[in-house]
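User: ok so my PI wants both of these folded by tonight, can you help

Assistant: No problem, let's get them done. Here's the first:
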Amino acid sequence: MVDRDIEPRLKLLARQFPAIVLTGPRQSGKSTLCKKVFAHLPYATLESPDVRAFSLEDPRGFLKQFPQGAILDEIQNNQQLTSYLQEIIDQEPAPGRWILTGSHNFSVMESTSQSLAGRSAVVHLLPLSRHEVVEFSHHPKTLNETLVAGGYPRIFDCELRPADWLASYVATYLERDVRSISNIGDLVTFQRFAQLSAGRISQLLSLSSLASDCGVSQPTAKAWASVLETRFIVFRLPSYHGNVSKRLIKMPKLHFYDTGLACWLLGIRNTTQLDVHPLRGAIFESWVVSEIIKQRYNRGESNGVYFFRDRAGLESDMLVQGSKTLKLVEVKAGQTISSDWAANSQRIMEMFARTKQRVSCVVVYGGTQRQERNGVTYLPWHAIQDYAWEE
């Protein structure tokens, strides 16, 4: 397994907090990462029926096994355990003793916020970034290969065909998680809902439209969208809400954390299919957004990424708030630079001129050459990992 970009942050937090809560989608590498970074701690997974039963029946006895702390994997299987862990931490608050992982964002956050507030640091581990993927000896070389493969570690670790592994992932993990939720009785309809969500990748999220197309009620669509979010399948990119205009769209955009999974849900199994697919540009846009989100999460930044659209249709695919500059980002799947790609962002820059913010424009595109033209940076897709988005 390659080094993960989040490792330095994990080590830093382990010197400051008694507990670290590491959340993320199933198979994103949480267990492997924790075993590597915290190799000195014993490991127990609550996915194992006997371990889970012990922790439920005798939580104090279960925790007493680990006088120096432990890695407790899939903590959502016994959310009450954190209440007993609170007692232990209050008695012995030494940093870095307890590492908790979970695949269900909402349930894990709910239990830890109630029991371990002020005692734990929360970290999200998403699928591999491009910076991490290229560390594997056999990694995607082209943009299409990158989009279809996605970023789940096992695909690269075992050199598997992405479509085969993702089919198993949906059946084994996503559907299993869904079965644990009482209000989802029809897995076929839920999978159709997930497929329709993929069909709206990089688009404004309208739950009423999604519900209508899927044949379910709007409250059901809202609940199912929440399932996909809490399982780290999709996320909502908020619209920019600054004071540059009173006519800004408030509806969020829908993005996928992993474009390989989005491609699979759309029926795209190889690069040839992707090359002619009408959503190729939207999939690429979601990849760019997720890459920047991953970089920020790995540095401990969870906010500061938006998109811009007003009611007149003026739009920028992304706004990234850096420490010094607000970056307007356009995403173009084409390989040949066109001067009109930055036209919208340049108009938006004129609007921001009144706010005294430093604003720059970046176009991430499907080609290979980095160029600077008329104050605009044209960044090739494979260089996204090297750009100073945080500045």
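One down. Here's the second:
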Amino acid sequence: MKIRLIAIFLCLTLLLMGCSKKKGENEGYQNPEEQGTTADLGDDNKSFGESLDDLGAYDGYFEGESTDIAVECVSGTQGAYKLEGTTLTFTGVGEESVYSISGKLRGNIVIDVGESYKFDLELHGLSLVCNSTNPITVISGDEVAIKAKKDTKNYIYDMRSAIDSTDETLYSGAIHSDVDLEIGGKGELTVVSENNNGIHSKDDLQVKNLTLLVACIDNSLKGNDGVEIEGGNTNLIASGGDCIKTSNSDISEKGNQRGSISIVGGTHNLYAACDGIDAAYNATVDDSTTVLNIYTDKYSNYSKEVTATSSDANYIRFTSNAYYYSVKYYNSDTDYVWVNAEYHSKVSGSRSNYYYYSYPKMPDYAKVQFFIYEAESQRGQDSV
């Protein structure tokens, strides 16, 4: 039986600024002066994050029933929508189309415009509250964009109970898309998901030049294939899971690598009970103007569950408790030491369990390898 070698790169960055790369003659070299700076945040017991009320998360919430909305075709196919009960559906476009919506709706919005044309939904001061299903569902569209227009504040509230994660007919995100989705605009957008996820695309998710607040239980932003954030100002809060996440890491039919997360420009505050950034393939932070603050576990005021940590230990996190781990510290082939990682704790999000294993720090060694074993394998070796 062969064991599997894991290369794990661990990095806790509380404040990262100016992360543009400067490479020398050797590929991968990065001038230390160009790596950005970290901030001294003071006492190790300090946590961060204003209350949701202070952030204005519920400023657009309203009680009672309402279908007091105005829908307008800005360009493209006229009359490509219908309001049935409390469900507003966009469908039947015959060309690239842009629609605007404003007002109050206690209900949900469905975008199902086919696969041939681009579709933009402009928010001009919308408060959308839904108790029975996810507030916005994008079923089809060549490319779909939801944009908060300049000088407007827009609010989306998912007030459902936690959904059954095994029921594929239910969508966990307050905004869910089956296709590539862009969230953008020069205005403000707030998404609150009381018991589920924030914004989820089964393909790629882009966030561009937007003032965005997402407060949820598990994933704030998830694009199965990729997530790109360009400019803007974001506050992402995941009180039981990850802020930014991808899940696929294969190659697409067009030859594109899936699973990447990219952040370019803007100011972004991430508060997560688990990971600030969880990329299936890789994550890059670029542009000299980028400010990225990541507060995880006990450093986030919003965390529902936290883990006790020690300054003398490091931690391995995995989504299964079926395996065992050893760590090989070494300076050379003859100067090394093995240590075993022991079970430490479990953290549960609304849809994921994370298992933590602790192992002692060994500062006298310059390199480290991580090994994962099945139950019948002997730990502390790298041959069988």
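The CA atoms of residues 208 and 230 lie 5 Å apart. The first strand starts at residue 4 and ends at 6. Good luck tonight!
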